[in-house]
Amino acid sequence: xxxxxxxxxxxxxxxxxxxxxxxxxxxxxxxxxxxxxxxxxxxxxxxxxxxxxxxxxxxxxxxxxxxxxxxxxxxxxxxxxxxxxxxxxxxxxxxxxxxxxxxxxxxxxxxxxxxxxxxxxxxxxxxxxxxxxxxxxxxxxxxxxxxxxxxxxxxxxxxxxxxxxxxxxxxxxxxxxxxxxxxxxxxxxxxxxxxxxxxxxxxxxxxxxxxxxxxxxxxxxxxxxxxxxxxxxxxxxxxxx
Length: 241
Fold this sequence. Notes:
The chain has about 240 residues and is an alpha+beta fold. It has eight helices and seven strands, in the order H-H-H-H-H-H-E-E-H-E-E-E-E-E-H.
């Protein structure tokens, strides 16, 4: 305030803006600001409004609505997108509560509440049947026990299929620290499909690449696998049946 009053007094004394700047050791832009804003008849105009900062618009109630909205799927609320970003949250809050926040303000609020913006983790739990999965584990345990006792009668192998997509839909989400959100592993077109197996006892491995992951190609790979087992059986001195 003292400096602003001094600028007005020097200006009233007939000094130019450049001379005032040289005399006070500041920039001409600063002198111009006070010459335009300062009013000698109003001392309130000498107060620098820029020092007050922005008023906090988001109340505790609004923050609570923000956090509850974040935990919901956007499509459940009628949105046409599948994940929340800071800007999308700000737009939705403005429509639902009438309070206008910027994406940066929403981001700062979430970080204060210990939220982070990281990749979601793919999950397949929604496609699993718990009862069948438990029964399958019991059956596998029995097979492994027989294989260990009489390996010449039974050998257990594990088989699986995987794919590598050139355009994976990675979903970043806001979530609590150390509590990564899980999403379905949906992918776009363009995959390299691989099938492979490993024998539990000898740890022997098989790998085959597929042009397309369908039932026909799966059957063809199993036929190749079966033919290789027969050749291995004959090479060991046994007769092919």
